Amino acid sequence: MPDPESRTRRENRRIAKRAHRRRRNSVVRRVIAGGFVVMLIPVGVSFGRALTAPGTDPWAARSVEWLRDQGLSRTVDWVEHWWYTNNPPPVGGKPKHGLPRAAAPTASGDPTPGLLPVIPLPYIVPHLPTPPNMVPVVTTPLAGEGVWQPTGREVQGLPAVYTAFLRPDPVHTSLVAGAMWMDTELLKTMFVPGLREPGGPHALGAEVPPNLRSTLIAAFNSGFKIASSLGGVYSEGQTVRPLVSGAASLVIYNSGKADVGMWERAFHMGPDIATVQQNQALIVDRGQPVPGLPSDPNGGWGAALGNRVWVWRSGVGVDANGGLVYVAGPGLSATTLATLLQRAGCVRAMELDINPLWVSAYTYVQTNPTDPAAITGAKLLPTMERSNDRYLVPGERDFFALFATG
Predict the structure, then answer these.
(1) Burial annotation 309-335 (CB, 10 A radius, 16+ → b, else e)
(2) Which residue of 21, 68, 185, 200 pairs with 240 in a disulfide if CB–CB is 3.0 to 4.6 A?
(3) Any idea of the CA torsion for 143, 148, 150, 155, to the nearest 10 degrees?
(4) Helices 59-67 and 4-52: crossing angle, nearest 10°?
(5) Is the dihedral of CA 146, 223, 277, 203 positive or negative?
(6) Residue 370 has what DSSP assignment?
(7) Is pLDDT larger for residue 200 or for residue 6?
(8) pLDDT of residue 31
(9) Which pTM was predicted?
């Protein structure tokens, strides 16, 4: 029979070995955990810098953009595509609050919305003809659907901006898109680079500076991030990214006149060009939505989400008279966006940014009758997410601003 004392010694040795293994494993785990912590410090620092960098993007948007910058764009795109595909816009119905009301025109120095009395002018101010009303897409339109209304601050006694509202397709009839027509005879356009996009110089500080606000009439978002634009940017005398032949381009001349067309068909670089901002391919050309929009065979319009996902989208184009037209709204595909731009009179048009955080457009209202630079933005659509000062404080992304001429 085993000696009780030897059994006790053997049991004590087993207990001691187990205790040694536990101590050793604990040390190994601590070393591994410490190594992970050391490895994560640069990641945490990078993420912290992204969250605290100057700009106006909310923390969720900053987090998503940080993930993209870490090489996880495909993962983010998949998640976004899954979300929008499984959360489509509602079918049928009517807009809950009806069509939005446009910000009524005001003269400089008059902060009270409302039509002004006609003031005889000593000469006829050069201006474009008012655009014809849009033909609604829905067969039973609401009162005022597609009707252009003068909006925002006037220029030399004339409305320089008109807005119209209509539903984007016959299926999602509770949604409303907005259109903004801008008179390029009364307005000059300026490209304002953001703190991060598209890179290169941003002499204006990524906002409309206070000294220019007395003549600010309207502003709207630019295109995709430069890495996703399939195009280039020329701004402030520098090629930020090489321009791409055939890309859809918003071109601003030194005079401030803006135009939209295909690069190296409608435009060629010359000393009279101040800005070229390219984004994908044209979605309206020669007055018609371009072939291939429903299938998007070359990935020319969908970028991350694809052209058929119903999502907030925006676009800009020009009509036959040279007027600049911006269209935006929720629940749009590339095809419905092109249809709206066509119905707004565009002969050429391009897609701009998509997703609710990046789509924003404003006219401006004077808040102090004695200070024309004291202004606030009036959203084109009340459902646009960004605040009314979106382009009056430094932001991460580029945009376009339109100012009174003269």
Answers:
(1) bbbbbbbbbbbeeebbbbbbbbbbbbb
(2) 200
(3) 180
(4) 110
(5) positive
(6) T
(7) 200
(8) 57
(9) 0.84
